[in-house]
Design goal:
The chain has helices at 19-32, 43-49, 65-74, 103-110, 114-120, and strands at residues 10-14, 36-42, 57-63, 84-89, 97-101. The model has no long low-confidence stretch (mean pLDDT 93). It has one domain (10-126): TT1751-like domain (TATA-Binding Protein), CATH 3.30.310.70. Helix content is 35%, strand content 23%. α4 (103-110) packs across α5. Strands 1-5-4-3-2 form a 5-stranded antiparallel β-sheet. The chain is an alpha+beta fold. β4 (84-89) and β5 form a beta hairpin. The protein has 5 helices and 5 strands.
């Protein structure tokens, strides 16, 4: 399932790995590219801390200040969507989905240039994680 047809700018692809493994693998890919991981949030663990159940769900927040800062300087409201995020989640513990904002949609939302949109497009990094 790759979904961007609803017009909300959200892309959803199936991962070959568990939620944790997906985020672990992605974090390694980011590190290899010199991209900063600002935060990694295990939302299932946070829910458990307050006595609630949540299926495996992790969010990673990342970016490259050298690329993102000029975008935010030119288009200050883009800071609502930067740094970038990737959500890995599962509702049935067997199918894992990777979900993120489409760079082209972010470009339209903030009026970014083609080069800026290219800077924000991390989808090629996901190729090794996506189930074909």
């Amino acid at each position: 399932m790759s979904d961007n047809a609803s017009g909300n700018g959200i892309i959803i692809v199936q991962s070959k790995y568990s939620v944790k493994e997906s985020i672990d693998q992605f974090q390694q890919l980011l590190s290899a590219k010199g991209i900063v991981v600002f935060a990694r949030i295990d939302q299932q663990a946070e829910a458990k801390k307050v006595g609630l159940d949540l299926s495996p769900t992790e969010l990673i927040i990342f970016g490259n200040p050298k690329g993102g800062t000029p975008i935010m300087q030119a288009y200050p409201l883009s800071a609502l969507d930067l740094p970038l995020k990737l959500l890995a989640w599962s509702h049935d513990d067997s199918t894992v989905w990777l979900t993120y904002n489409d760079a082209a949609w972010l470009g339209k939302r903030h009026g970014l240039t083609r080069d800026m949109i290219h800077t924000l497009d991390f989808s090629p990094l996901l190729a090794s994680l996506v189930k074909v």
